[in-house]
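Query structure, 98 tokens:
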């Protein structure tokens, strides 16, 4: 997470809380009472950021890229990467409101 620019604000056994700007994410180990079979989420985690181009320049050679930065037909500039658990993280910046 530090490679993505997040700062760890709390770390306990099996739990961590990280922050990047206004994004505050809590992470935990799988529940011990439910057998864990690996990642099963099939969507992507979509994060709005204020500096997507700057973030792209920082991460493009350090991360496993799913899709490179581009401006989508709906006007949002974004890129996607895989985290260490195999989840897709999409970072996006919306155009300024007119």
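Result returned for the query:
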């Amino acid at each position: 997470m530090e490679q993505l620019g997040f700062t760890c604000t709390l770390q306990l056994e099996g739990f961590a809380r990280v922050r990047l700007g206004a994004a505050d994410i809590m992470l935990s180990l799988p529940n011990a009472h439910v057998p864990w079979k690996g990642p099963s989420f099939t969507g992507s985690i979509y994060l709005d950021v204020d500096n997507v181009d700057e973030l792209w320049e920082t991460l493009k050679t350090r991360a496993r890229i799913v899709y490179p930065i581009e401006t989508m037909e709906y006007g949002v500039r974004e890129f996607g990467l895989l985290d260490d658990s195999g989840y897709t993280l999409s970072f996006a910046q919306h155009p300024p409101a007119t």
